[in-house]
Structure formats: structure tokens, C-alpha cells
Amino acid sequence: MEQLTILATRQCSHRPNLERELRDLGVPYRTVFVEDEPELARRLGVRGSPCIAVGDRLVCYGQPTEGELRGLLQRHGLLKES
To answer: Is the dihedral angle over the CA atoms 30, 34, 36, 41 positive or is it negative?
Structure first.
């Protein structure tokens, strides 16, 4: 299974909510601050905050709605069905 990564700036006000939603859904993730890894952000084409990457591809720009997040996770096989 590919890793889900949140790419965000340290000042991003949406990141904590996105992290909470992923935790609530039981989806493992890592957070990368673009200030700490500017080359990764550049390589993936990050232009806003937050962004979500699965593996080495950006799959979402900005804060998704709950429905969008669930759909994205399902498409990538990351959401456990209840």
C-alpha cells in the first residue's frame, strides 16, 4: 500500500483538521512541511497548502470536503470499509 502524505506549510490552518479527519478514519499518514523539504514540494508541484500525495503523486490540492476525502481514500485503496 502506498503512503499517504500531507504536504503543508507550518502556518497552514487546514492541516490540523485534515490530520484529525485521517486519524478518525484510521488512515495512516505522514506530514511533511514544505519548509523542511522544499525539493520534494518542488518535485511534486506543490503550489498551495495543504496538498495530499499518495506515493509520489499529488492527488488533492487544498482542503477536501469530508466526502471528497472519503472518495479519494477509497479510489486509492486507503479507506478501511466499516
So the answer is: positive
CATH of domain 1-13+28-63: 3.40.30.10
For the chain, domain boundaries: 1-13+28-63
Cα angle, residue 24 at apex, residues 53 and 37 outer, rounded to 5°: 30
Q: In the prediction, which pLDDT does 81 show?
A: 66
Distances from the Cα of 25 to the Cα of 28, 41, 63, 82, angstroms: 9, 25, 16, 10
For each successive 10 residues of the chain (82 residues), what is the average pLDDT? 93 97 96 96 94 96 94 92 60
**Torsion over CA: 16, 17, 22, 23 (sign):** positive
33 CB-near residues (< 8 Å, 6+ apart): 8, 9, 10
